[in-house]
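Input.
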Amino acid sequence: MNSLSNKKELLELRQGKEILTWYMCGPTVYDHSHMGHAKTYICFDTIRRILTDYFGLRVHLCMNITDIDDKIIMRANERGIKFDEISRAMETEFFNDCARLNIRLPNVITRVSEYVPEIVEFIEKIIKEGFAYESAGSVYFDVIKYSQSNGHTYAKLEPTSLSDTAKLNEGEGALTVESSAKEKRNPQDFALWKKSKPGEPFWSSPWGEGRPGWHIECSAMANSIFKDKTIDIHSGGVDLKFPHHDNEIA
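Output.
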C-alpha cells in the first residue's frame, strides 16, 4: 500500500536501475522497545526478504537512529546523566531485540549525532531557496510559502490532521513547543534548528548554538546517503505519517 496515494501499486524499478533504494525511519532511542516496534520492523524485514530472497533484487536499506531529541534530553535530565548515555544504551537494546526477532540489519545505519554538519548544510540550502527563516536563534520551515511556490499541498498523507494541535506539538517536542509557538510565522511551520537552552546539548551553527529539529534529520541523512537519487521506498511507523513524514515530503 502506497500511503501517498492510498492505493495498492506495483513496485516498478526505473529502467537501468540495479539497486532498490530504501530509507527506513528507525526508533527514537529514549526508552525500551515495545510491541509496536516489533510489529513494524518485522513487517519491513519480511518485505525486504521477499524482495531480495524471492525476487532477487538488490536492496540498499538505510535506517536512521534518532539519538538527539527532546524526549531523550528529558529522560537524561531526569536521571542526571548525559543524553548520549541514554541513546547509546537504548540503541544497543533495540538492535539486541531485533537480533532476537531475527530481523536483518540494514545496510547503513545513520545517527543524527553523526550528521549534524550535513544537517546544518541542508538547512542553509533551504534558507537560500527562501523556504525557511531564522527566528530568535532557531530556524523554521515556512510551510505556507513553500506550498504557494509550487502548488504543494501540505499534509498530503493525513490532510485531516492539518489542524491537529496535539500532533503538531508532539512533532515540535516538549522542550521547544512553547517557545516555537511565539517564534513561528504560521502554526504549521516546523523547527529545522532549535536554539538550545541551559542544560541541553548543543552544536555550533550559523544561527548560534543549538540542535537539529526532528523532521529535518531524516531528510538530510537520506540526502547524504542517497545523494540526489530518488528513493524507491520510504517507510516508518503509521504514527509518523503526520507530522513527521508530511514534513519530510515538504
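The domain at 19-249 is CATH 3.40.50.620 (Rossmann fold).
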